[in-house]
């Protein structure tokens, strides 16, 4: 996939997540949602191979409340994010999601 396409997908995902996850009055998850999308989007997007995330992605994962973010993933976001890749990224970065955690409509096995 061309770099320009990846950037466009990443920006689209940021806008969707910021628009749908950070709803006024509902509070926000601890951490850096923008950073997660900027540094980690390429590792969780559909389509594409499963690839270990970068050190920069892991830094953001480690300082973010991933279970909280998972609770705010909508159906439209799930169309662009491969939830098995989310589990791979969080595990690789040393912040594995617990079995049974609900991430959008996906339940971590």
From TrEMBL:
Q: Which residues form the Bifunctional inhibitor/plant lipid transfer protein/seed storage helical domain?
A: 26-103
Q: Any idea what this protein is called?
A: Uncharacterized protein LOC108839554
Keyword Ribosomal protein recorded: no
Q: Which InterPro entries match?
A: Bifun_inhib/LTP/seed_sf, Bifunc_inhib/LTP/seed_store, NsLTP-like
Q: Any idea which UniProt keywords this protein has?
A: Signal
Signal peptide (UniProt feature, chain positions): 1-27
PANTHER family from the entry?
Answer: BIFUNCTIONAL INHIBITOR/LIPID-TRANSFER PROTEIN/SEED STORAGE 2S ALBUMIN SUPERFAMILY PROTEIN (PTHR33286), BIFUNCTIONAL INHIBITOR_LIPID-TRANSFER PROTEIN_SEED STORAGE 2S ALBUMIN SUPERFAMILY PROTEIN (PTHR33286:SF51)
Species assigned in the record: Raphanus sativus (Radish)
Q: Which gene encodes it?
A: LOC108839554
